[in-house]
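Task: sequence design from structure.
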């Protein structure tokens, strides 16, 4: 499969990638299982471009469920349609269909990553994005002798999570090994693609010099180990400008979700649902970005600063209402 080609128009580099999302078999720890991945690879293909380039990624969904791809850490100012979070900037790419992302790089330089955005698909549908200095420029540190990417993810065995190390059965053939030459400098780019684990990373009897973080350089820090936290899917920012203009109470809880029609036969089936102030997310029929641009009413401006459908509890029976 030709995964990548690129061209240059008036000095602007354009890269074209083909991502085929489908189930394929992988063997680790004495077990073969099928996982949803891109181009039959785990981790998926690495995207390697330069600062300011434009990347076209045609995603063909040959799996069984709808999903999207999010370009984590790429800002894409004024290009929200290619950001990827499902139901926010687009509806999921349905099985048997495709969607082409136009990912426009701006100030990012360093290492970021891409991942699927639908339930837990992110666990296996992910890969690194390496953004090299713009053509004609260099790293803000001496040129390393070699440059490589390590994507750290989890390998799930049933309900248990297992990380293949030397002590696991059948781990030998799949344990990562790297030969290095004495005196050379290696630039190692590490992506934490775990769903729920922060990672400590160290190289025994070596110091590390951290030179970048989340697609930007930093003032170099010498350390013996680093901690890489998760891709936080929820981030709450508060910016104190001058005075407090409103006070909010926010309660998060686990609720029982009752059925819409109390007389139906499966009404006994309760589902657990998380909520904020007794409001739960329900996937909308139109993505939020499109609702905003097309001015579709009924979807926006419900919760302060948030778009949502409401679920409110009424007489022992939670139901969906549109405010
Ligand atoms: Cu992300």
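Answer:
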């Amino acid at each position: 499969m030709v995964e990548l080609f690129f061209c240059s128009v008036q000095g602007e580099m354009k890269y074209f990638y083909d991502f085929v999302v489908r189930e394929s078999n992988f063997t680790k720890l004495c077990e073969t299982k099928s996982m949803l991945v891109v181009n039959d690879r785990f981790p998926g293909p690495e995207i390697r471009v330069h600062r300011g380039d434009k990347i076209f990624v045609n995603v063909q969904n040959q799996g069984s469920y709808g999903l999207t791809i999010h370009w984590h850490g790429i800002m894409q100012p004024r290009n929200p349609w290619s950001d990827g979070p499902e139901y926010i900037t687009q509806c999921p790419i349905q099985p048997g269909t495709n969607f082409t992302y136009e990912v426009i790089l701006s100030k990012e330089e360093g290492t970021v990553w891409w991942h699927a955005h639908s339930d837990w698909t992110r666990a296996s549908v992910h890969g690194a994005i390496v953004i090299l200095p713009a053509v004609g420029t260099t790293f803000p540190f001496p040129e390393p002798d070699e440059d490589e990417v390590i994507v750290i993810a989890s390998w799930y065995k049933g309900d248990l999570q297992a990380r293949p190390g030397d002590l696991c059965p059948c781990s030998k053939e799949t344990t990562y090994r790297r030969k290095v030459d004495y005196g050379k400098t290696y630039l190692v780019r590490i992506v934490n693609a775990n769903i729920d684990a922060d990672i400590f990373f160290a190289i025994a009897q070596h110091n590390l010099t951290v030179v970048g973080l989340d697609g930007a350089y930093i003032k170099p820090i010498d350390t013996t180990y680093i901690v890489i936290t998760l891709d936080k899917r929820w981030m709450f920012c508060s910016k104190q400008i001058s005075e407090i203009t409103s006070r909010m109470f926010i309660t998060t809880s686990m609720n029982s979700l009752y059925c819409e029609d109390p007389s139906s036969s499966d009404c006994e089936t309760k589902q657990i649902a998380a909520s904020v102030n007794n409001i739960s997310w329900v996937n909308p029929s139109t993505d939020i970005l499109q609702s905003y641009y097309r001015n579709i009413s009924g979807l926006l401006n419900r919760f302060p600063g948030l778009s949502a459908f409401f679920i409110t509890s009424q007489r022992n029976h939670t139901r969906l209402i549109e405010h």
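Residues 252-321 form one domain.
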